[in-house]
Design brief:
alpha+beta; GIY-YIG endonuclease; globular
């Protein structure tokens, strides 16, 4: 399985990522092993989707990082 996830960081901004090991990746974010979120801890998982196809997961992550995807996130998740 492949996962696309959204974290809420301590600066109240969102972080979107993709992984095949969700639990392990979230732990790495929370423990400060990833430079993208290390200074923005603590982080909280607010959403994830599972995909059986890695290509679809990557495309959905790209969508969420686009203007339309940010609008979708704001309307439906925040």
């Amino acid at each position: 399985m492949y996962y696309v996830y959204i974290l809420r960081c301590s600066d109240d901004k969102l972080y979107v990522g993709q992984t095949s090991y969700l639990k392990k990746r979230i732990e790495r974010h929370q423990n400060g092993y990833l430079p993208s979120t290390k200074p923005r801890r603590p982080v909280f998982l607010i959403y994830y989707s599972a995909f059986s196809d890695q290509y679809k997961a990557i495309e959905f992550e790209k969508y969420l990082k686009s203007g339309s995807g940010r609008a979708f996130t704001s309307k439906h998740l925040i």
